[in-house]
Write a structure and sequence with these properties.
Rossmann fold; Glutamyl-tRNA Synthetase, domain 3; Ribosomal Protein L25, Chain P; 7-stranded mixed sheet; 15 helices; 27 strands; RNA-binding
RNA sequence: UGGGGUGUAGCCAAGCGGUAAGGCACAAGACUUUGACUCUUGCAUUGCGUAGGUUCAAAUCCUGCCACCCCAGCCA
C-alpha cells in the first residue's frame, strides 16, 4: 500500500492518512461488532460497509466480533445470521470472534489492574441509590460512600463477585472518574455488574459481566483495532472510551473511536425493537419478510448486495444528521438490477388474444435476449402461437392521448415476434372486453426483412401453450406514507397499528413464460416493461411465487 | 437551564481564504423491438442557518445569536 496514492474521501480517511504518514499506526484494523440480539438491517449495513471499506482501502482488515457481553439479550441464532449476511454482502472478516469467549478473561484482568491503580472501586449502592446520586444534566452528582475504600478491599470484593459470593445486582465495579463531570457518562461509570443469567456462549462460567462503556474499548484494544468506527449515537461515549484506553491500556497502539451519522430512510421502520415487535406479533412473515429492510428481507425481496452497498456509499461518511428519500435507495437497486437481471415475459393481468391467421396447434419459435445490456448473456427461446395473452392495460378501446399500445384497428409489435393488428374486440355480456381477434402481419417477425416496419409501440406477451400460472407478491410500504419517520412516531407513543398500512402484501396470479420454470430463489429477473422480480423461497415445484423487487420506471403519463 | 454534535438546492453531499463539484428527485428533448436502459439540456446569477467583524478576496478565519439532534440502563 502506498499512502501517497490514496485520496481520502471523508474526514475519517483524512485522519487515517495523517496517522499513517506520521507513523502513529502502520496498519488499519477495524471491527464490525454486532450484538447478537436481532437481525441486521440497512442501518447496520452502513456501519459494516464503512468499517470494511475503510480497512480495505488502506490494505487493512476487519474483524467480525460478536459483542455478546449481555446474557439477557443475546441468542446464538442471531450470531449465525450475521455470518450469512456478511458473506452475502461480499465481505470476508479477518476472523470471527466472540467477545465472551475471547476477551472476558482479558477484560477482567484489565479491571483488576485499574483497581490496583486506585481508579476503580466496588460499590455497594443499589441501582436506585446510584441513580439518585448521579445528579442531573444540570446538577453534579454525589460521591458514593464506598468510593474511597482501600483498593485492596475493592480487589478482594471484586474477586468475590466473580466467585459468586454476592447476589445479582448487589454490587458493581465502578470507575473512579468524576461525579460532577459535565458529561454524565463520566460520573463513575459502571464497569461490571453481577448477573446469573445463562449466557448462550459461555453458559454459567461467569456471573459478572462487563458493561459496554468498559467492555468495548478493552475489546478493541485487545483485538488490536486501530479505528473503531461507529455511529454518532456513541459520540458522547468517546470521552469514556478514551479514559479507559488511557488508563487501562499500555499497548503502543491505542484504538480510536470515530463516529459517523446513522442512516435514516424516509418512510422506513428500522430499529431492532420495532422489527422484533412486527415479527413476534406476526404482522410480517418473519425477519426475512420482503417488506422489511433487514438484510435477509432485502435479499428475499430481490435487492442485490451490490445495489445496497452502492446506495450506502452514496450517502457519504459525515457527522451530520440526514434522512434519505426511499427513491434514492430504489435508484441504486434498479441500477444494479438492470445490469444483472435476466429478461423474461410475464403477463400480470392477462387479456386473451386470438391470432386469427395463425393455425391452431402451430407454433413458431422466437428468441428473447436475456439482457440487452450484456452481450454475453445470450438468448432464450419463447413461442408465438394462435392463442396468446397480453397485458390488459396494453389494449384500449378508448385510448388516452399519446397511447402507443394496441387499439381497435391499430397495430403494435409483440416483443420478439410479429406486428399484430387488432381487427375485432369481443365483449362479454357485461360489456367488458372478453378477448381480442387480431392478425399478425407476415414478414414482420423480429430479425426478418420487413421487421423494421414503424410501429408506435412494442408490448410483451406469452403464448398460452408456452406459459404457466404463477403467484405474484407485490409489496407496498409497510407503514403509512404520512409517517415519514415511523420509528420516531412509535417512540412518541403512536400505536403500531396506527402507523401500519393495511394490505401491504398483495397477491395476484400471472402467466409466465415457461422459461421461468428454471428460476431459483434469489435469482434476479426483469419481467419486461413491468419490473424486477425474484423467486420466493416459499415456491414449490408446482407453485412458483415471484416477489416484486421493484417496478421499472414509468414515464408514461396518463392524461 | 449542563455537556456534546450538526446547519451548503426538495433530499443527500463536495468544498479546507481565490470567486458554489457530483448524485437523487424533478422538468424538457433525443434514441429505443422494454414508455426501461442510454444520451442531451435545465435545475443555489452574488446565494452556503443568521448578524456583525478581519481581508484586495470569506461557505471557508473571528465574535455574537438562532435552529435542530444526542446524552442522566447494572442496554449496545
Amino acid at each position: 500500500m502506498d499512502i501517497e496514492n490514496i485520496t481520502p474521501t471523508n474526514f475519517i480517511e483524512e485522519e487515517i492518512v495523517k496517522d499513517l504518514r506520521e507513523g502513529k499506526i502502520d496498519k488499519v484494523i477495524t471491527r464490525c461488532p454486532p450484538e447478537p440480539s436481532g437481525y441486521w438491517h440497512i442501518g447496520h449495513c452502513k456501519a459494516w460497509v464503512i468499517n470494511f471499506e475503510t480497512a480495505l482501502k488502506f490494505g487493512g482488515y476487519t474483524y467480525l466480533r460478536m459483542d455478546d457481553t449481555n446474557p439477557s439479550r443475546e441468542q446464538g441464532e442471531f450470531a449465525e445470521s450475521y455470518l450469512d449476511d456478511l458473506k452475502w454482502l461480499g465481505y470476508t472478516p479477518k476472523a470471527v470472534i466472540y467477545a465472551s469467549e475471547a476477551y472476558f478473561e482479558g477484560i477482567y484482568n484489565l479491571a483488576e489492574k485499574l483497581i490496583m491503580k486506585g481508579l476503580a472501586y466496588v460499590d455497594e449502592l443499589s441501582q436506585e441509590e446510584q441513580l439518585k446520586m448521579k445528579g442531573t444534566l444540570t446538577t453534579p452528582g454525589i460521591n458514593s460512600p464506598y468510593r474511597d475504600r482501600p483498593k485492596e478491599e475493592s480487589l478482594k470484593l471484586f474477586r468475590e463477585m466473580r466467585a459468586g459470593k454476592f447476589p445479582d445486582g448487589s454490587l458493581t465495579l465502578r470507575a473512579k472518574i468524576d461525579m460532577s463531570h459535565p458529561n454524565i457518562l463520566m460520573r463513575d461509570p459502571i464497569m461490571y455488574k453481577i448477573s446469573r443469567e445463562h449466557h448462550y456462549k459461555t453458559g454459567d462460567k461467569w456471573c459478572i459481566y462487563p458493561i459496554y462503556d468498559f467492555a468495548h474499548p478493552m475489546e478493541d484494544a485487545l483485538e488490536g483495532v486501530t479505528y473503531s468506527l461507529c455511529d454518532i449515537t456513541f459520540r458522547v461515549h468517546r470521552e469514556v472510551y478514551e479514559w479507559f484506553v488511557d488508563n487501562c491500556w499500555d499497548g503502543e497502539v491505542k484504538p480510536k473511536q470515530r463516529e459517523f451519522s446513522t442512516l435514516n430512510l424516509e418512510n422506513v421502520l428500522l430499529g431492532k425493537r420495532y422489527l422484533k415487535q412486527l415479527v413476534e406479533s406476526k404482522y410480517v412473515m418473519g425477519w426475512d419478510d420482503p417488506r422489511l429492510l433487514t438484510i435477509v428481507g432485502m435479499k428475499r425481496r430481490g435487492y442485490t448486495a451490490q445495489g445496497i452497498k452502492n446506495f450506502v456509499k452514496s450517502c457519504g461518511v459525515v457527522a451530520s444528521e440526514s434522512t434519505i428519500p426511499f427513491s434514492s435507495l430504489e435508484y441504486y437497486i434498479r441500477e444494479d438490477l438492470n445490469k444483472v437481471a435476466t429478461r423474461a415475459m410475464v403477463v400480470l393481468n392477462p387479456l386473451k388474444v386470438i391470432i386469427t391467421n395463425m393455425e391452431d396447434g402451430v407454433t413458431e419459435e422466437i428468441e428473447i435476449e436475456n439482457n440487452p445490456n450484456d452481450e454475453n448473456s445470450g438468448k432464450h427461446k419463447a413461442v408465438f402461437a394462435r392463442e396468446i395473452y397480453i397485458e390488459r392495460e396494453d389494449f384500449s378501446d378508448n385510448p388516452p392521448p399519446k397511447y402507443n399500445r394496441l387499439t381497435p384497428n391499430g397495430i403494435v409489435r409483440l416483443k420478439g415476434a410479429y406486428v399484430i393488428k387488432c381487427n375485432n374486440v369481443v365483449y362479454d355480456n357485461n360489456g367488458d372486453i372478453d378477448h381480442l381477434e387480431c392478425e399478425y402481419l407476415k414478414n414482420t417477425k423480429s430479425g426478418q426483412e420487413g421487421s423494421n416496419i414503424k410501429v408506435k409501440g412494442t408490448i410483451h406477451f406469452v403464448a398460452k401453450c408456452n406459459s404457466f400460472d404463477c403467484t405474484i407478491r407485490d409489496f407496498k410500504n409497510l407503514t403509512k406514507d404520512e409517517y415519514l419517520w415511523p420509528g420516531k412516531a412509535l417512540a412518541q407513543g403512536v400505536k403500531i397499528d396506527e402507523i401500519l398500512q393495511q394490505n401491504s402484501l398483495v397477491t395476484s396470479r400471472a402467466k409466465a413464460e415457461k422459461f421461468l420454470k428454471t428460476a431459483t430463489p434469489y435469482s434476479h429477473y426483469q419481467f419486461m416493461r413491468k419490473g424486477y422480480y425474484t423467486l420466493d423461497k416459499d415456491s414449490t415445484k408446482d407453485e412458483y411465487i415471484f416477489n416484486s423487487t421493484i417496478s421499472l420506471k414509468d414515464s408514461f403519463k396518463k392524461n
